[in-house]
Design a protein that fits this description.
With 355 residues, the chain is α/β, with parallel strands linked by helices. The protein contains 13 helices and 13 strands. The radius of gyration is 20 Å and the shape is globular. Bound molecules: nicotinamide-adenine-dinucleotide and thymidine-5'-diphospho-beta-D-xylose. Thymidine-5'-diphospho-beta-D-xylose binds next to helix 7 and strand 8.
């Protein structure tokens, strides 16, 4: 497979950084375009070969900086991951979600369409804009059923509503302008380099710090968990083989109640890092007030991507969660850096372009 130059928005964040590692290890060049909000950190890119990535410090709402970067680096295709991504933050302060997730996606589409129109026919044929979205746009399920690509949108939080809006913009750019888009809607990811505000890294962090492990409501809300490297593999597959204008659901076929997730982590930690007092980490579990509008259950039907593109997850939850806990135990420095906002540009030898 020919190596390419991929523009990745949000590549200093959780999924974007894992994707950058994966694409660079296959010989591709990655243009990391990131605003470095609280959720983005260049420490997450340590280990990506320096000759395989270029960092541009910018906001996706800055159309002229995006355009300049595309032309300067002769970008082949884009993975669009930059977003405000945490549901609780969207409840407390929705405006950043509207700005980045909706206006930012509009701004990117404008810059990329102009760039696409400037390409010669051969490069146009190969160009793709892959928009990375979430299963939360479909709303909440009862005890049965799955989200398919045909499920009607019913977002319930400011976060999911902003992602739904961005999905609609991307769809319209295909239908109206013939812009070559692909969209993926994925379930909950977990794995290395996830900011410790999301359930799994938060629980690992708080357990080790001797702090409460907060469980919202009755702890019986269900999520469908996917190991992040499986998601990255799915994204690369969609980029290579997806049909322009199509949407692909991506899921782990791995439903768990939140309380089960937290107990699994406690049990792994009890073995790998037993507490000095001999008690289990489960003693730190604390039930707290529920999240407003908390979706009860998400579950993805990922049969389309398996049938049409041949992708399915490789990791089981048991192996994935074990690797994840191990990663956090080995990388407490990364956790400190991201919580303290240390970017360490100097250590990576990056000048970066300021947006
Ligand atoms: P994240 O919060 O870890 O990272 C987001 C990144 O985007 C950060 O590096 C941040 O600095 C950057 N960013 C934010 N606003 C920006 C702006 N205006 N301009 C440029 N960069 C900006 O998010 P994540 O969990 O890695 O999620 C990545 C994408 O995948 C999001 O679009 C999210 O909606 C989607 N998604 C996430 C999950 C999940 O479980 N984490 C599941 C399905 C879909
Ligand atoms: O402290 C907590 N206690 C708790 O019970 C936190 C942070 C979460 N929870 C619950 C809420 C959810 O039911 O755990 C579940 C998972 O919560 P999050 O990790 O915040 O993820 P979720 O709200 O499901 O959204 C995630 O998956 C879809 C990502 O944050 C989104 O970006 C993605 O689109």
């Amino acid at each position: 497979m020919k190596c390419k130059t991929f523009f990745i928005t949000g590549a200093a964040g959780f999924i974007g950084s894992n994707l950058a590692h994966s694409l660079a290890s296959k010989g591709n060049t990655v243009i990391i375009y990131d605003k470095l909000t609280y959720a983005g950190n260049l420490a997450s890119l340590e280990g990506v070969p320096p000759d395989k990535f270029i960092f541009v410090h910018g906001d996706i709402c800055n159309t002229s900086l995006v355009s300049e970067t595309l032309h300067n680096h002769k970008v082949d295709s884009v993975f669009h991951l930059a977003a405000e991504s945490h549901v609780d933050r969207s409840i407390d302060g929705p405006s950043a979600f509207i700005e980045t997730n909706i206006n930012g996606t509009f701004s990117l589409l404008s810059a990329f369409r102009a760039y696409y129109e400037s390409l010669d026919e051969t490069r146009k044929q190969d160009f793709r804009f892959l928009h990375i979205s979430t299963d939360e746009v479909y709303g909440s399920l009862g005890d049965d059923g799955y989200f398919t690509e045909d499920t009607a949108y019913a977002p319930n939080s400011p976060y999911s509503a902003s992602k739904a809006a961005s999905d609609h913009l991307v769809r319209a750019w295909f239908h109206t302008y013939g812009f070559p888009v692909l969209t993926t809607n994925c379930s909950n990811n977990y794995g290395p380099r996830q900011f410790p505000e999301k359930l799994i890294p938060l629980v690992i962090h708080n357990a080790l710090a001797g702090e409460p492990l907060p469980i919202y409501g009755d702890g019986k809300n269900v999520r469908d968990w996917l190991y992040v490297e499986d998601h990255c593999c799915a994204l690369h597959t969609v980029m290579q083989k997806g049909v322009i204008g199509e949407t692909y659901n991506i899921g782990g076929n791995c439903e768990r109640q939140n309380i089960q997730i937290v107990k699994s982590i406690c049990s792994i930690l009890d073995k790998m890092r037993p507490k000095a007092d001999g008690f289990s980490y489960e003693n730190q579990i604390t039930f707290v007030k529920d999240r407003p509008g908390h979706d009860r259950r998400y579950a993805i039907d990922a049969s389309k991507i398996k049938r049409e593109l041949g992708w399915e997850p490789q990791e089981t939850f048991e192996s994935g969660i074990h690797k994840t806990v191990e990663w956090y135990l080995d990388n407490s420095k990364w956790v400190d850096d991201i919580l303290n906002g240390n970017y360490r540009c100097e250590r990576l030898g990056l000048g970066g372009t300021q947006g």
